[in-house]
């Protein structure tokens, strides 16, 4: 859960449901694998063809002090199953916001079966890397290196996010990210401490080294942020914590405390350098959209940790964990660092090849990437719901689909056309007279409405659609009609049609509704709009509580007009319109009507 919160926090608000839904599905798929596949695979080999380094007793047994574990097989299945689930969550961090959910459901079991298990059984399951003496105490290679490499490889095949998301991708909730990071740090002590499957000196060293390295790495990353950017970033501190935890993982119980400090210094600086400097200069990394920088925080930090483990590995601690008891780090005169480099290179190469094959195969069956229309909308298109119910939001949750209720939410009126059939939302009824908000429209006979994109609210020539037009012409002029006994207006086009809040979804399964033209005669509530002043700007609220909203982004949704509610706390500004008065009401003496209400 901590990992999911940590990944969810940095996302944009409209991607929250997608992220939690996607990683939740992969957790279910991972849980189905053991009973479906049955007994675990044997290791790919029993002995290595590489130069052997084992030391044998005279009776032929391998010299090792590793304790014999005493625990049910179910405990091992669950423990290792959670490791596998975490790995796929990390892969998802590189793909969030754009991978087709169906393709993701196919990717998870295939990747776990053909990529993850090979690395896991090679290093942990008695495979050739294990017997040759490659060290991976708790998943630096099996989990973090493989997920970082697989994530950036899959991101290459899926393609980047929209240009808007790549240019501006603010986190939706830093506090939520901090909560997840705290849970993650606490859980990582069990993650690494449980590596030996016993409570011994190895597990104790693993727990203390985990915290030492993470704390050191967090401080180093924060210092670098202050030195180069002038401020200590909270997000940067979390990144530094993550790289420290990842770096110590392959050697948590195999190095001494002073070595954990040294590893923390390097894990807080090397991934920072690759993320902040190399990534911005190397065209290959710039061409691949790694959403949360998983390559830097997990692949780079994981490989770095494996190599440093080969440099700092303490012989006595190694003898408690490995079958190759004469393994020792470079500072102790050993050649373990070479084994670590080769073992990491195998994991990298295997993941690049197998992940690419899986992506290509899935792409032949189902698109890897979400449609562009869904990318522009986000959660609404994928799940038909929002991650948050903030002020002004939450109306998109459909009780008839998500609960056992059958409440009739239909407004108490009967629409006069297909475009104005019963809305799924309760009708908005104003409480007070708002003379100030109606002042502009009481004195105007006809107006033009200009969106934040500097385009005009326009009645299309098909006499049905409402679009955003580039130029001033008669179709962008709307006649103002005041609604009797209510602070609301009707806007009539040059075709005699009215601006209407229809119940036609923008896309199937999406809660945003189209704004259209209809010939519905008054008093149809669907053609009534309540003006709301925000400083010198205006919003128009429909009878169902939504706001007239211009769509932006890529075609074909670039010039569409909907009635919707804001997705992000700061997206309310996109609901504001300039009002250009074309003709005043007869007898108006207000000089203020000669000015243009500025939007920005």
UniProtKB/TrEMBL annotation:
<dbReference type="Pfam" id="PF00909">
    <property type="entry name" value="Ammonium_transp"/>
</dbReference>
<dbReference type="InterPro" id="IPR008999">
    <property type="entry name" value="Actin-crosslinking"/>
</dbReference>
<feature type="domain" description="Ammonium transporter AmtB-like">
    <location>
        <begin position="72"/>
        <end position="388"/>
    </location>
</feature>
<feature type="transmembrane region" description="Helical">
    <location>
        <begin position="342"/>
        <end position="366"/>
    </location>
</feature>
<feature type="transmembrane region" description="Helical">
    <location>
        <begin position="171"/>
        <end position="188"/>
    </location>
</feature>
<dbReference type="InterPro" id="IPR029020">
    <property type="entry name" value="Ammonium/urea_transptr"/>
</dbReference>
<protein>
    <recommendedName>
        <fullName>Ammonium transporter</fullName>
    </recommendedName>
</protein>
<feature type="domain" description="DUF569">
    <location>
        <begin position="438"/>
        <end position="577"/>
    </location>
</feature>
<feature type="transmembrane region" description="Helical">
    <location>
        <begin position="76"/>
        <end position="96"/>
    </location>
</feature>
<keyword id="KW-1133">Transmembrane helix</keyword>
<dbReference type="GO" id="GO:0005886">
    <property type="term" value="C:plasma membrane"/>
</dbReference>
<dbReference type="InterPro" id="IPR024041">
    <property type="entry name" value="NH4_transpt_AmtB-like_dom"/>
</dbReference>
<feature type="transmembrane region" description="Helical">
    <location>
        <begin position="234"/>
        <end position="252"/>
    </location>
</feature>
<dbReference type="InterPro" id="IPR018047">
    <property type="entry name" value="Ammonium_transpt_CS"/>
</dbReference>
<feature type="transmembrane region" description="Helical">
    <location>
        <begin position="108"/>
        <end position="129"/>
    </location>
</feature>
<feature type="transmembrane region" description="Helical">
    <location>
        <begin position="208"/>
        <end position="227"/>
    </location>
</feature>
<feature type="transmembrane region" description="Helical">
    <location>
        <begin position="258"/>
        <end position="278"/>
    </location>
</feature>
<feature type="transmembrane region" description="Helical">
    <location>
        <begin position="299"/>
        <end position="322"/>
    </location>
</feature>
<keyword id="KW-0812">Transmembrane</keyword>
<keyword id="KW-0924">Ammonia transport</keyword>
<feature type="transmembrane region" description="Helical">
    <location>
        <begin position="141"/>
        <end position="159"/>
    </location>
</feature>
<keyword id="KW-0472">Membrane</keyword>
<dbReference type="InterPro" id="IPR001905">
    <property type="entry name" value="Ammonium_transpt"/>
</dbReference>
<dbReference type="GO" id="GO:0008519">
    <property type="term" value="F:ammonium channel activity"/>
</dbReference>
<dbReference type="Pfam" id="PF04601">
    <property type="entry name" value="DUF569"/>
</dbReference>
<keyword id="KW-0813">Transport</keyword>
<comment type="similarity">
    <text>Belongs to the ammonia transporter channel (TC 1.A.11.2) family.</text>
</comment>
<dbReference type="InterPro" id="IPR007679">
    <property type="entry name" value="DUF569"/>
</dbReference>
<feature type="region of interest" description="Disordered">
    <location>
        <begin position="401"/>
        <end position="426"/>
    </location>
</feature>
């Amino acid at each position: 859960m901590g990992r999911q919160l940590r990944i969810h926090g940095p996302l944009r608000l409209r991607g929250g449901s997608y992220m939690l839904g996607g990683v939740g599905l992969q957790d279910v798929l991972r849980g189905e694998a053991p009973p479906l596949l049955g007994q675990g695979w044997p290791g790919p080999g029993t002995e290595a063809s590489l130069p052997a380094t084992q030391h044998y007793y005279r009776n032929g047994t391998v010299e090792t002090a590793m304790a014999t574990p005493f625990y049910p097989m179910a405990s091992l299945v669950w423990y290792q199953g959670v490791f596998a689930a975490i790995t796929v969550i990390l892969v998802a961090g590189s793909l969030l916001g754009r991978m087709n959910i169906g393709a993701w459901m196919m990717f998870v079991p295939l990747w776990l079966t053909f990529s993850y298990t090979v690395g896991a059984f090679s290093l942990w399951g008695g495979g050739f890397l294990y017997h040759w003496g490659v060290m991976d105490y708790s998943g630096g290679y099996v989990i973090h290196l493989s997920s970082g490499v697989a994530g950036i490889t899959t991101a290459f095949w899926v393609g980047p996010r929209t240009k808007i998301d790549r240019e501006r991708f603010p986190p939706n909730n830093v506090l939520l990210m901090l909560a997840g990071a705290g849970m993650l740090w606490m859980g990582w002590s069990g993650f690494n401490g449980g590596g030996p499957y016993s409570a011994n000196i190895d597990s104790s060293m693993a727990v203390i080294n985990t915290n030492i390295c993470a704390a050191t790495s967090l401080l180093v990353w924060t210092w670098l942020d202050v030195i180069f950017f002038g401020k200590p970033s909270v997000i940067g501190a979390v990144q530094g914590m993550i790289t420290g935890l990842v770096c110590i993982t392959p050697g948590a119980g195999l190095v001494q405390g002073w070595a954990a400090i040294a590893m923390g210094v390097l894990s807080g600086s090397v991934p920072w350098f690759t993320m902040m400097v190399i990534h911005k200069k190397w065209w290959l990394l710039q061409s691949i959209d790694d959403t949360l920088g998983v390559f830097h925080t997990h692949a780079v930090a994981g490989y770095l940790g494996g190599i440093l483990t080969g440099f700092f590995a303490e012989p006595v601690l190694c003898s408690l964990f490995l079958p190759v008891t004469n393994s020792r780090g470079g500072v102790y005169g050993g050649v373990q660092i070479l084994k670590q480099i080769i073992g990491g290179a195998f994991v990298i190469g295997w993941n690049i090849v197998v992940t690419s094959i899986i992506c290509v195969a899935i792409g032949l069956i189902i698109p890897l990437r979400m449609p562009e229309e869904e990318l522009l909308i986000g959660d609404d298109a994928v799940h038909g719901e929002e991650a948050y119910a903030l002020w002004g939001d939450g109306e998109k949750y459909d009780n008839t689909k998500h609960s056992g209720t059958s409440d009739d939410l239909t407004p108490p009126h009967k629409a006069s056309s297909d475009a104005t059939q019963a809305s799924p939302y309760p009708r908005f009824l104003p409480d007070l007279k708002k003379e100030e908000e109606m002042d502009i429209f009481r004195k105007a006979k006809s107006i033009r409405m200009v969106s934040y994109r500097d385009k005009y609210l326009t009645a299309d020539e098909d006499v049905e659609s409402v679009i955003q037009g580039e130029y001033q012409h008669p179709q962008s002029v709307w006649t103002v009609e005041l609604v009797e006994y209510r602070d609301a207006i009707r806007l009539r086009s040059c075709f005699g049609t009215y601006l209407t809040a229809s119940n036609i979804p923008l896309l199937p399964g999406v809660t945003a509704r189209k704004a259209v033209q209809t010939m519905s005669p008054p008093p149809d509530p669907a053609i009534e709009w309540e003006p709301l002043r925000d400083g010198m700007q205006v919003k128009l609220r429909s009878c169902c509580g939504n706001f007239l909203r211009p769509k932006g982004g890529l075609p074909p949704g670039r010039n569409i007009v909907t009635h919707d509610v804001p997705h992000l706390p700061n997206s309310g500004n996109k609901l504001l319109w300039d009002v250009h008065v074309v003709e005043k009401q007869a007898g108006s003496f207000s000089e203020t009507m000669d000015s243009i209400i500025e939007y920005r």
